[in-house]
């Protein structure tokens, strides 16, 4: 009975082990799939959180937009339209013309519009505007983030709407076109100084008083959301903060958990990496499609400006995911090359041989000493001396074509090429001098006296010994 009981226990233990192995493989596979979903989600969420809610990153992302010609053209058109809406120069010109010439008011006003737009474009392209753009974006972003984080002291609202304050840009354009504005108004205009910390509605009121023309309380402002929705917006930011933090913690744990549970860890590492890379590619393609949609939606005249803004804004995400994909390729390559596969073993053996030969050649070039067991390596280098010299120049040329290098980069490549050529020169084959073959003397042949001369050889001298 005892052997039967032991056999039953062993069978039961074997079934339990098999069930445990199945559960382990199932959980490991689930973690692999989960990681393939979490990695692109974590990368997207972390990039969005940093770009949208970190002021320094936001400003550095949007700062180059102000210098883009397409954006300058679109903004100058918008500001010129607001100026004309506020000043209504066509009515002023019509009042100044004789009744029969009032039909000229429109063409004159349109010609003046081009001059105003050019003046506004000069403002937008100036260094002063670039600094103003950066300071206004920084201040506005700090305000928005402070509001969303719960600070009520910096809240700016207009008619119950939380707004971004771009009144200083509007005021700077007015100041640059002050001569034209004074001509339209009929008196000298002193444009007031407006700071980014001033309430936008109060700044618009001061500009309106200086112009003597009514301006809307929303001039130079971009509405964000209604103040009544502020509570929901703050709650959403809090949830987003916690979600990003949770993803940054959970995603690495899922990766490590799958590796820990796996019994074939190299294969699991490859599955995790390839799955994560596939998820990143899917997200990139979806965002590229959405990017095209954003660029193609809206007024056609502003398409170039939208393209510049969207590409600048999303460029950071594509750079981040590209680096993640490159890192994934490196991990896959290392996992495959270090594996037990036949081709991997042969590759490692070849790399080891190549590394050893490289060390031998460097040592021989530097020290001039060649160990007996490494004579074959140096002999191979000497046999292919000309090819190696040419190869060094070709590699340097390809580096110059592949990379945009400055003066110091060019100098570094040239220095490496010189070091390579000098080291190779020390390995050159030894110079050989071809000596003429020694003349051999042939013994005289039997025959007539002229026989030797006829054969073209000199007869050996006859030595006669005296005796």
Secondary-structure map:
Elements: H1 2-53, H2 55-62, H3 69-87, H4 89-96, H5 105-125, H6 127-148, E1 157-158, E2 161-165, H7 167-176, H8 178-185, H9 200-211, E3 221-226, H10 230-261, H11 265-296, H12 303-337, H13 342-367, H14 375-383, H15 385-402, H16 407-426, H17 451-455
Antiparallel strand pairs: 1-2, 2-3
Q: What would you say this structure looks like, in words?
A:
This protein is an all-alpha fold and 467 residues long. 72% of the residues lie in helices and 3% in strands. The chain has helices spanning 2-53, 55-62, 69-87, 89-96, 105-125, 127-148, 167-176, 178-185, 200-211, 230-261, 265-296, 303-337, 342-367, 375-383, 385-402, 407-426, 451-455; strands spanning 157-158, 161-165, 221-226. It has a three-stranded antiparallel beta sheet, with helices on one face. Mean pLDDT is 75; it is low at 449-467.
In short:
This protein is mainly alpha-helical.
Report the principal-axis shape. flat
End-to-end Cα distance, whole Å, is: 124 Å
User: What value does the Rg take, in angstroms?
Assistant: 41 Å
The computed structural class is mainly alpha
Strand order of the largest sheet: 1-2-3
> What share of the residues lie within helices?
over 70%
Order of helices and strands: HHHHHHEEHHHEHHHHHHHH
Report the average pLDDT across residues.
Answer: 75
The figure for the number of domains is 3
Write down how many β-strands occur, each being a DSSP E stretch of 2 or more residues. 3
Beta-strand residue percentage: under 5%
């Amino acid at each position: 009975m005892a052997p039967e009981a032991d056999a039953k226990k062993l069978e039961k233990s074997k079934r339990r082990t098999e069930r445990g192995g199945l559960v382990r493989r199932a959980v490991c596979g689930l973690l692999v799939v989960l990681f393939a979903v979490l990695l692109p989600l974590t990368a997207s969420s972390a990039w969005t959180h940093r770009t949208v809610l970190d002021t320094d990153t936001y400003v550095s992302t949007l700062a180059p937009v102000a210098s883009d010609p397409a954006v300058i053209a679109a903004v100058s058109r918008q500001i010129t339209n607001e100026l004309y809406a506020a000043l209504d120069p066509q009515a002023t010109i019509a009042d100044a013309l004789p009744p029969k010439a009032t039909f000229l008011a429109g063409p004159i006003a349109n010609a003046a519009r081009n001059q105003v737009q050019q003046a506004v474009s000069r403002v937008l392209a100036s260094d002063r505007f670039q600094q103003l753009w950066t300071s206004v974006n920084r201040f506005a972003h700090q305000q928005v983030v402070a509001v969303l984080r719960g600070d009520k002291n910096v809240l700016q609202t207009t008619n119950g709407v939380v707004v971004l304050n771009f009144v200083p840009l509007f005021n700077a354009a007015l100041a640059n076109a002050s001569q034209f504005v004074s001509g339209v108004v009929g008196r000298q205009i002193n444009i007031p100084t407006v700071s980014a910390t001033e309430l936008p509605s109060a700044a618009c009121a001061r500009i309106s008083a200086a112009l003597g023309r009514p301006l809307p309380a929303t001039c130079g402002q971009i509405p964000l959301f209604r103040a009544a929705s502020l509570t929901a917006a703050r709650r959403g930011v809090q949830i987003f903060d916690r979600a990003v933090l949770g993803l940054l913690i959970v995603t690495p744990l899922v990766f490590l958990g799958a590796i820990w549970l796996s019994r074939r860890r190299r294969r699991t590492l490859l599955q995790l990496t390839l799955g994560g890379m596939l998820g990143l590619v899917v997200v990139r393609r979806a965002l590229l499609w959405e990017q095209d949609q954003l660029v193609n939606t809206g007024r056609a005249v502003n398409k170039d400006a939208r393209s510049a803004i969207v590409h600048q804004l999303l460029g950071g995400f594509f750079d981040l995911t590209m680096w993640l994909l490159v890192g994934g390729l490196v991990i896959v390559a290392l996992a495959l090359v270090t594996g037990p596969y036949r081709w991997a073993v042969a590759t490692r053996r070849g790399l080891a041989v190549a590394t050893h030969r490289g060390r031998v050649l460097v040592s021989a070039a530097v020290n001039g000493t060649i160990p007996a067991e490494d004579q074959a390596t140096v002999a191979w280098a000497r046999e292919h001396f000309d090819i190696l010299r040419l190869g060094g120049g070709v590699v340097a040329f390809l580096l110059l074509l592949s990379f945009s290098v400055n003066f110091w980069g060019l100098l570094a490549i040239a220095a490496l090429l010189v070091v390579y050529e000098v080291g190779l020169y020390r390995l050159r084959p030894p110079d050989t001098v071809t000596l003429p073959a020694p003349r051999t003397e042939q013994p005289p042949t039997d025959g007539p006296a002229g026989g030797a001369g006829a054969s073209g050889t000199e007869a050996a001298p006859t030595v006669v010994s005296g005796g």
